[in-house]
Amino acid sequence: MNRLVDMQDALSQATTLEEFQTFVENLRDVYDLEHLVYHSVNSTGGQYAALTYKPDWVERYIEQDYARIDPVVQGCYRQFQPIEWKTLDWSAKASRAFLGEAGEAGLGNQGFSVPIRGPSGQFALVSVNHKCNDEMWASFTSERAADLLLISHYLNEKALQIEGNPHRGPTRSLSPREKDTLTLLATGANRANIAETLKISESTLRVYIESARFKLGAANTTHAVAMALTHGLIVV
């Protein structure tokens, strides 16, 4: 958790899109990834991206409008949960050709993406990829999936803040029990352990989680934890 806290502190210092880009590059290095991408689309179609690919591949991707056939982008549009790239359908001829070209441009053979639904119709995704075998990747995602989920929401909140777009902040204060619940979730505790620690039933715990989500305007539990941390409502 210390690494995550350090990353949050570093991100809080970014005040320009250039500094945001530098943070994305540093984050890629901290987690020893091949590439990391943050891509945001607002309700009017305006786009912003911070990523670690070479400019010529980015230009090629935009020029060919590869987002239309990229299974990662299309999968993230349709789903709300994080996506392992190997679970996506890469069987179409266009998808296979795209994958081959992307691989030549440095794309890793393993990937993980987090779809984000933001305020006012905003959509974003954070993708990471690496070149390694299945066993190594399974170990990485097992250890780092929770970090990546939280970091993805931190990135989105910061990008919206820098761009000056309206974003949802907490409109109501959290109760002590709601804070306790989100704090324990942020430390990585599972629901059964949290219920035991707080001496409540898991059904009561779900009530606290859903109440906190509603107050924060969060899309899911992970988003609620990220928002609570970002706005200083809980400290880990």
Automatic annotation (TrEMBL):
Residues 167-232 form the HTH luxR-type domain. Pfam families: Autoind_bind (PF03472), GerE (PF00196). It comes from the Bacteria. Transmembrane segments: none annotated. GO terms for molecular function: DNA binding. One of its GO terms (biological process) is regulation of DNA-templated transcription. Keywords: DNA-binding, Transcription, Transcription regulation. InterPro entries: Sig_transdc_resp-reg_C-effctor, TF_LuxR_autoind-bd_dom, TF_LuxR_autoind-bd_dom_sf, Tscrpt_reg_LuxR_C, WH-like_DNA-bd_sf. CDD domains: LuxR_C_like (cd06170). This is Regulatory protein, luxR family. The lineage of its organism: Bacteria, Pseudomonadati, Pseudomonadota, Alphaproteobacteria, Rhodobacterales.
